[in-house]
Amino acid sequence: MRYLAAAVLALLIAGAASSQGRFGIKAGPVFNYLNTEGENGGSFSDVKTGFTFGFSYALPAGKRFTIQPELNYIILYSDESLTSSTFHLDYFQIPVLLKGTNAKGDFSFYAGPQLSILAHATSKTGSNNTDITTRITETDFAGLVGLEYVTPINITLNARYTQGFSNVIKSEFDTFKSRHQYITLTLGYLFGKKKTQ
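The chain above was modelled as a monomer; its predicted structure follows.
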C-alpha cells in the first residue's frame, strides 16, 4: 500500500509539469481526537496536537470547479488513560477533493473522500516504546470538508475537518469503535498563475 502513496506523488508531479493545473505544498498543525465508544478498548479523551505536510495538484474541472488529489503525511498522537500510554500514529493520506472557487479565484470550499495508509504506530508508556503497528488498522477511510484562501502572492491558508469512518484500533470486541476526528490548519504555497473567471 505504501507504493500507492509513492505512485500518487509521482502522478502529482508529472501532472503539474504537463498541464494547466496548479501544484501546491503545505504544512501545519493537526488537532486530533480519537473518538471511542464501547467497552474493553480504553479511553482517549484528550485532544492532542500533531503535524502534517504534503503536496496537492488542482486540475480544472469546470468554470469554477477543480478536482484536487493530494498526498500528505500526517503524525497523530492520542493519550490512552487506562494504561497512561501515548499512541503515535503516522499515515500517508490520499484525499481527492472537489473544490468550488469564487470568481476572483482566491476563496474555495472543498469536500471529498480520503484514504489513509498506516506507515508506523508506537505506544509509549513511561520510557518504554512499543511497536503497535499490528494492532492498528492498516487503511483508514474518511471524509473531509474545508476552506482555502489564496493570497495575491500565492500563499495558501487552509482549514479542514476530517471524520474517520474506519476502526482505528483492531479489536476482537464487536462493541468497541474508534474513529479519528481532527482539524487541520495549514500554510502553503501554490505554483503557477491564479486564473480568474
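The chain has one domain: 2-190.
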